[in-house]
Amino acid sequence: MIANLGYGTLIITFLISLFGIGAAYYGARKNDHAWIASARNAMLLTWPLLTISALSIIYLLVTNAYEVDYVASVTSNSMPIYLKVTALWGGQAGSLIFWSWLMAAFASAVTLRKWDRDQEFLPWVIIVSLVTLAFFLSLSIFIENPFVRLWQTSSGQITTAMLQPAGSILFKPADGSGLNPLLRHPGMIIHPPMLYLGFVSFVIPYAFAIAALVTGRTDDRWIRITRRWSLVA
After folding, report:
1. For residue 161, what is the enclosing H or E element?
2. Full DSSP string of 44-84
3. Shortest CA distance to 89 belongs to which of 79, 99, 102?
4. 196 and 86 in contact (C-beta within 8 Å)?
5. N or C: which end of the chain has fewer CB within 10 A?
6. What are the angstrom distances between the C-alpha of 218 and each of 13, 24, 199, 221?
7. Tens-digit pLDDT profile for residues 120-172
8. CB pairs under 8 A, 24+ apart, for 27-31?
9. 25 — phi, psi (to 5°)?
């Protein structure tokens, strides 16, 4: 149930991102502020939805849901709770969700600023941010799905799938493989989030740079807007 909830919100977020891209582009081309406002709301909605997905993974990690392939690969019975929580970024599938969650947080934060003087930038900042987010979401949905489960076929083979294959039953190992020993050090626990924060926050200056190119605003307005974002990154 929790795995389905997390995966479902991933798909919904991906579809909302695609809508936001289309709405922002249409609004910019037609100079229709209603469509741009709708795209802005779509971008604001991505963060709470991805929060549900991230919390779903954390819940599965903490409750030893070893029937989920990702949980079985990065946690074990002997791990303390705090390590199970940080196992969210202990593998590639979970890291992509964490990355997308941070990306949505920064995109939502920049959307909440006052845009009175920079309305022409807004749709293009939305487009660049949501294209980036949609790319990472597509990886989580189609390639590195952290909610995929383990199934045992009638012949005894173990396979992975999101939905139950015909003639199979859910397989739950007694214990998981555990987190990579290198990632159990406190320095390595905070290392990925710090890197992700730097990488993701640079998407905002990049989005403004593209917006300035598209709109022909060759002054230094976009540089002054993004100065704090660059310093944070």
Report:
1. strand 158-161
2. HHHHHHHHHHHHHHHHHHHTT-TTBHHHHHH--TTS-HHHH
3. 99
4. no
5. N
6. 34, 22, 25, 8
7. 999 999 999 999 999 999 999 999 999 999 999 988 899 999 998 888 999 99
8. 27/123, 28/123, 28/124, 28/127
9. -65, -45
Q: Which tokens hold the place of 52?
A: 């549900």
Core vs surface per residue 22-58: b (16+ CB within 10 A) or e: bbbbebbeeeeeebbebbbebbbbbbebbeebbbbbb
- Contact indicator for 193, 95 with CB cutoff of 8 Å: no
pLDDT in tens, 18-65: 999 999 999 999 999 999 999 999 999 999 999 999 999 999 999 999
Q: Residue 179: CB partners within 8 Å, gap ≥ 6? A: 74, 75, 76, 79, 83, 87, 90
Pull the structure tokens for residue 153. Answer: 């076929």
Virtual CA dihedral for 70, 72, 78, 83, nearest 10 degrees? Answer: 0
Q: Which two tokens stand for residue 88?
A: 């969210």
Structurally, the chain folds into a number of domains equal to: 1
Q: Which domain holds residue 45?
A: 2-232
d(C-alpha 228, C-alpha 233), whole Å: 9
Single-letter code of the amino acid located at 114: K
What is the C-alpha separation between 66 and 63, in angstroms, rounded?
Answer: 9
Q: Supply 203's token pair.
A: 């998407």
Query: Do the Cβ atoms of 178 and 74 come closer than 8 Å?
Result: yes
